[in-house]
Amino acid sequence: MARCCLLLLSLTLVPTSAHGEDFTRTAVNSNINKRIKREWIWNKMHIIEEHNGTLPHHVGRITSTIRNPNAKYVLEGEGAGTLFRVEDSTGDVSANERLDREKKAEYHLKAHILDRFTNKSLEQPSVFRIIVYDINDNAPVFVQKVFNGSVLEMSPLGTSVTKVTAVDADDPTILGNTRVSYKVIQGNQYFKIDDTGTIYTAVPDLDREKTPVYTIVVEAVDGHGLHSEESGTATVRISLTDINDNFPTFRKKNFHFEVPENTRLDGEVGRLEVEDIDEPQNRNTKYSFVQGPYQDTFRIEPNPFTNEGIIRPKKPLDFEKVSSYKFDVEATDADINYAYSRTKGSKSIASVTIKVLDVDEPPVFSQPFYIFEVQEESDIKKVIGSVSAHDPDRAKREIRYHILRSNYFKISTKGHIFALKPLDREESAWHNITVAANELEQDRIVPNLESHVPVYIKVTDINDNAPEFADVYNPKVCENAAPGKTVIMISAVDKDEMSPGVKFRFSLVSEESNFTLIDNHDSTANVTVKYGQFNRELVKTHYLPIIISDNGSPQQSSTNTLAIHVCKCNEEGDFTFCEEPAKQMGVSVQALLAILVCILTIIVIMVLIVMRKRHRKDLNILRKNVTDIHEQLVAYDEEGGGEMDTTSYDVSVLNSVRQTSMRSPRMTMENRPCVYSRVQKPPGNGISGTGEMGIMIEMKKDEADNDGDLLPYDTLHIYGYEGAESIAESLSSLGSGSSDSDIDYDFLNDWGPRFKMLAELYGLEPSEDLLY
C-alpha cells in the first residue's frame, strides 16, 4: 500500500501544498474525533500545445490527503467550466480544446474540495497553474515586408548596407525553437547576409551609373529549419549613393559662335554644353584653354545650375583687327575621385570657333579722358586743348564734336576747345565738361552713333587780386595809452592762390597820425601808439589807412582803413567805457533784387485793386442814375394826393428829359429813360381788347429785340397805349412828345382839380414838352 502511494505521488508531480508548506487539517467523523495531518500534494499541471489526441485531453488530477467519500472537486478561474473541466469525484482535470501557447502560455485556476451534500468546503481552496508546453510550430516572420538600404557606389567588398529583422513566436527557452538564420535567395551575387540580419556587399565597385538600385530577397528560418512561405521572406531595395567619379564630356567636338563686335565686356558669346552622368551635386566642371593665344581675350564661366561653360569677352572685340578666333577647350572636374575614375574615360577636349560680326560703331576717342590747363583771364581765342576721335569702322567717316551743357566753353569741328569768356580762378578753379563726338555721312549726323569723353580743365592762377585784411578788426586804445603801446596785430589774405612764397607788406598812407605801423615781415604787422595821450572828447574814432601789397607779379596792393576807437580805461589799463560802433549790415545783391520784386508786386496789386474799386463805383453811379430816372417814370402803382400833391414827382427832371429828347431823336442808355418799366399796370384799366393789346405787345417786343442800345429785360411793360375805352383817351406822355402835335390841352383846366397837374404839364410850349 505504501508503494502505491509513492507511485501516485510521483505521477502527480511535486507533492507539496498549495502554499508551499505543510499544514494540519481536522477531520470530523461521527464516530472518531482526532487530529490528523492533511495537505494538497500538487500545485501545477502541464499540457502540450496543439495536442493531436482525441478531445478532451487529460491534463492532470487534483489530489489531497483527505479521504472523504463525500468529497467533491470544483474548479474556478481562467477557462474553468469551458476550456477546462474537472471530474468532481476523482479530481481529474481535462482540456476541452487544443491549446496554443503563443496565444496563452499559462492559466491560473483555483481548486475547491466541497462536501457533496452540504457544499461546505472541506479544505481551504488552493491556486494552481496549467502550463502549456511549446512545440516548434511557428516560423520566423519579418517585421516588415520591404526594407530599404543604401551604400556608396564603388564601395569595397564587405561594406555594410542595412539590417533586416525577423521574429519567432515560439518559446525562447526551448533550444532551437526561436533561433533565426537568414540567407539571400535572390541577388546573392551582389550581396550577402549574416545571422544577425546585416546585409553586406558581396562584390566591390558597384557602379551607380550602371545599376542605381538593386532589389534582393532574403529568407528567415528557425533552428529546426521551419520556414514560412508567406511571411518568411522580405524584399530589400538597395540604392547606390552617387560619388563624383565621372569626367564631364563635351556633347560635340566642335562649337561655332557668332558675336557682334560691340558686345559689352562680360557679355555672353556662347555656351559650351557638357554631359556629366554624375548627379548634379557631384558635377563641378572646370573649363580651361588648351591651345590658342586668346586667354586674355575670353574667359569661360561655368554655370552651377546647367554645368554649361559660358564664354565671355574680357576685352573689347574689334572686327577690323581680329575677325575670328579659334582655340581648344578642355573640360575637367577638380573634385573627381581619381581612384575610381581611371576606368571611366579620359578628359574631354573640344574646338571652339568664334566669328566676330562687323557693327557700325560710334567714334572712339584717343584717350579715356582729357586734362587741360589754362591761365585765368587768358584770351578767349587761345586754344585750351584738343580732343581727337576716329571712326573705328572701315568707312572712316568724318567726326564732328560738340560740348554738352556748358556756358563757359565751345569746341571747333576739329576738336579744339576755346573759352567763351575769360575764366576766373577765384570763381571756379576746375571745370568738368563732356565732349560728344558724332559721325557724319553726307554732311548729316549719323543717328545713334555718339560717344562721350570727360574733359577736366584746370584754371591756373595769376596775381590779379590785391591783398586785404584777414578779418574785420575792431581795435581799441586807451585815451591815456603810453607811446609804444601795441594796439593790434593785423594780417592779410589774398584771393589768389596762397603759395608758400607769398609775403605781404604793410605801410601807412601818412605818417602824420598818432599811430605807428611796424611790419613783422611774416605777413603780419603791429599797430602801436606813437605819441600817446588821446583826447576822447575831441576824437572818439581814429581812421588809419594802411597799404597792403604782395610780392607777386604784377604786384597788387590795396588800401584798407583801420578804425581805432578811443576808450576810457582805469589805472590798470582795462577798458571801462567804449562806444560800440554801429554794426554794418550787409545785404547781398540777390536779397535786394528779391525785395524790389516784392515791392513792385505789391504796388501792382494795389493799383489793380484801386482801379477795380473805381470801376465798380462808376458802374454803381450809372446804375443809380438809371434807377432814379426809372423811379421817376414808373411810379404808377401809388395814387397821388390830387391836384394839391406837388411833391410826388420832380417835374424839373421830367422837363429836362423831355427837352433832351427833342434835341436828340435817338438817345442812348446813358441819357434816356427806359420805356420798358418793371411796374405793372393795375388790371381792368380800360383795355379795349386782347387782340389789339396783343398786337401792340408784339410790336414793342420786336422793337426791344432789335434795339442793341437797350439793356436786356426779362419782362416788358408798355405804357405807350391806353386803350380805346378811356374817356380822356391816352394820358401817357410816351407818345405825346412829338413836335408836330396840334392838340390843345387847355381843356384839361376845365376838368377840375384832379387834372390840374396835367394841365400845367401839357400847357407848356412845344419846346418844353417832356418825353414821359
Automatic annotation (TrEMBL):
Signal sequence range: 1-20
GO MF, one example: beta-catenin binding
GO biological process: adherens junction organization; calcium-dependent cell-cell adhesion via plasma membrane cell adhesion molecules; cell migration; cell morphogenesis; cell-cell adhesion mediated by cadherin; cell-cell junction assembly; homophilic cell adhesion via plasma membrane adhesion molecules
CC annotations in GO: adherens junction; bicellular tight junction; catenin complex
Subcellular location(s) of the protein: Cell junction, Adherens junction; Cell membrane
Coiled coil (residue ranges): none
UniProt-listed Gene3D superfamilies: Cadherins, TCF3-CBD (Catenin binding domain)
Origin superkingdom: Eukaryota
Keywords: Calcium, Cell adhesion, Cell junction, Cell membrane, Cleavage on pair of basic residues, Glycoprotein, Membrane, Metal-binding, Repeat, Signal, Transmembrane, Transmembrane helix
Topology class, membrane: Single-pass type I membrane protein
PANTHER family in the cross-refs: CADHERIN-23 (PTHR24027), CADHERIN-5 (PTHR24027:SF89)
Name the UniProt record assigns to this protein: Cadherin-5
Organism: Podarcis lilfordi
Lineage of the species this protein comes from: Eukaryota, Metazoa, Chordata, Craniata, Vertebrata
